[in-house]
Design the sequence.
């Protein structure tokens, strides 16, 4: 990697995707913020020697005030990319605009199928035969921003939710760090003629 590319990671719970980012020696996690003080992701960050803090809406006047404090903290840490890794809250419009084009999210479905919560359960309830993982830029909608990377998983045998979640997580733990590395290396660009289309130069999509 040519120049330093510090990232901030936002979590709400377990933080297994955060762990995959922390474990990747090519990625520099500069800060971890959580929407809940009890998020296990905060412990994972501290164990890795990374600055970590909770930004709970109830501790601020309203969500916008929380978002402003969070944004200021992220800027102080010098992060160039904000990674939502199991961050279970909607960020306000001002936050999205402030970090325009510099926020990514990992979602456990092949978007635009099954945006929002309980994506895996809803895919199973629907009888989907293929599920997957999407890493995408974040816009003002719910899981609606331009797609950076996707990987499909066939659902050929098991319909057991825990087992499928585990398989989805394995894919997430590969796909999210890969997307971050590609962005850090300047290999991801949005088509100026069609902002829905993201060009990824990873040797596979050329
Ligand atoms: C992941 O499945 C991610 O796709 C979704 O929330 C889950 C977070 O898991 N947005 P973890 O906290 O990274 O273990």
Sequence:
């Amino acid at each position: 990697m040519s120049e330093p590319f510090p990232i901030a990671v936002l979590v709400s719970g377990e933080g297994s995707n955060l762990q995959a980012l922390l474990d990747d020696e090519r990625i520099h996690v500069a800060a971890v913020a959580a929407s809940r003080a009890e998020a296990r992701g905060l412990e994972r960050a501290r164990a890795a020697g990374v600055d970590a803090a909770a930004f709970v809406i109830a501790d601020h006047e309203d969500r916008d005030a929380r978002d402003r404090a969070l944004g200021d903290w992220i800027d102080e840490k010098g992060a160039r990319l904000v990674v939502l890794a199991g961050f279970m809250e909607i960020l306000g419009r001002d936050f999205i605009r402030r970090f325009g084009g510099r926020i990514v999210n990992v979602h456990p479905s092949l978007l635009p199928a099954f945006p929002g919560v309980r994506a895996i359960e809803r895919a199973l309830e629907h009888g989907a035969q293929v599920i997957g993982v999407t890493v995408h830029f974040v816009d003002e909608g719910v899981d609606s921003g331009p797609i950076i990377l996707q990987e499909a998983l066939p659902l050929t045998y098991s319909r057991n939710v825990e087992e499928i979640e585990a398989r989805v997580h394995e894919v997430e733990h590969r796909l999210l760090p890969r997307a971050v590395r590609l962005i850090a290396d300047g290999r991801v660009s949005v088509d100026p003629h069609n902002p829905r289309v993201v060009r990824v130069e990873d040797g596979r999509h050329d």
